[in-house]
Write a structure and sequence with these properties.
Keywords: Membrane, Transmembrane, Transmembrane helix. The chain is mainly alpha-helical. Helix content is about 70%, strand content about 5%. It has seven helices and two strands, in the order αββαααααα.
Length: about 250
C-alpha cells in the first residue's frame, strides 16, 4: 500500500475510534445515571396472590462496578489521548517530515499511546465479559429478599446487568418498572458488546500507526544511504515523501 493511502486509512481509523469511544462513554454514563437515579430506588414486588408486597432496594448489598470504571477509562483514553493526541501527533509529524525529513518525537509517543490504549480496551473487554458470565446464573430468592426488606439484598455479588435482569423477572407491582428496566438493560448490554468493535478499531489503528512509523524509518534509512557523503538528509527529502501526509 502506498504511504499516502496508508496515512489516509490512519485518519479514517482514528475518526472511527473517536466515534466508538464517544458511544462507549455515553452508554456507560447512561448506566451510571440510572444507578444514581431510578435504579437506586426501591422496586415494589408482589409477594403472593393476596396482594401483599415488599420493597426491594434498587441495588444489592454487593454491586460490582469496577468493569464499568475500566470501560470508562478506555473510552476516555480513546478520546483524550488517542483522538486529540493523534490529531496533534499527525500535524507535528507532517511538519517534522516536511521540515527536517524525520519523524516527530511526539509521533513515537503517540504510537506508544495507541498500544497502551488498545491493551486497556482489551482488558476492559475481557474483564467485562468474564465478570458478567461468571454471575449470569445467579437468582434472586424471593423469601430472602422479603425477609431482608428494606435492607439491600445480601446474597452474592452482582453486576448491574445481572442484577437488573433478575429484578425484571420478579412480579413487580408497577408495570412501568418493567419497561424502564428493559430499556436500561438494552443500554447495559449495548456498552458491553460495543467493546468488541472498540477493541478491533483500536487494534487496526495501532497496527497502522506502527506500520507507517516503521515504513518511514526504513525509507529514510534507505535514502540516507543513497545521499552523497556530507549532504544532510533533510535537505534532500523528496517532495512526495514530505507531502504524503496531506495527500
Amino acid at each position: 500500500m502506498a504511504s499516502s493511502k496508508l496515512m489516509k486509512v490512519i485518519y479514517v481509523a482514528l475518526f472511527l475510534l473517536y466515534i466508538d469511544a464517544a458511544i462507549s462513554l455515553s452508554l456507560v454514563s447512561s448506566m451510571v445515571a440510572f444507578l444514581h437515579g431510578r435504579g437506586g430506588q426501591p422496586f415494589e414486588v408482589r409477594q403472593d396472590l393476596n396482594g401483599s408486597s415488599f420493597n426491594l432496594p434498587g441495588e444489592p448489598a454487593h454491586l460490582l462496578t469496577d468493569h464499568g470504571h475500566t470501560t470508562n477509562g478506555a473510552g476516555g483514553t480513546g478520546i483524550v489521548l488517542v483522538w486529540f493526541g493523534g490529531v496533534l501527533a499527525l500535524w507535528l509529524e507532517h511538519r517534522s517530515r516536511a521540515k527536517y525529513g524525520k519523524s516527530s518525537p511526539f509521533y513515537y509517543l503517540w504510537a506508544l499511546i495507541t498500544i497502551l490504549s488498545w491493551l486497556l480496551t482489551l482488558t476492559a473487554l475481557i474483564y467485562t465479559f468474564v465478570l458478567t458470565n461468571r454471575h449470569s446464573n445467579q437468582r434472586i430468592l424471593m423469601s430472602l429478599a422479603a425477609s431482608y426488606s428494606p435492607r439491600p439484598y445480601p446474597w452474592e455479588s452482582w453486576t448491574p446487568e445481572n442484577w437488573y435482569t433478575e429484578v425484571n423477572k420478579l412480579p413487580l407491582v408497577h408495570a412501568g418498572d418493567h419497561d424502564t428496566l428493559r430499556k436500561k438493560l438494552r443500554l447495559m448490554r449495548g456498552w458491553r458488546y460495543n467493546l468488541i468493535p472498540f477493541m478491533i478499531l483500536g487494534f487496526i489503528l495501532m497496527a497502522l500507526v506502527v506500520v507507517e512509523l516503521l515504513r518511514f524509518r526504513k525509507s529514510r534509512s534507505r535514502k540516507e544511504e543513497q545521499q552523497p557523503f556530507g549532504q544532510p538528509y533533510g535537505a534532500a527529502v523528496s517532495k512526495h515523501e514530505s507531502a504524503h501526509l496531506v495527500a
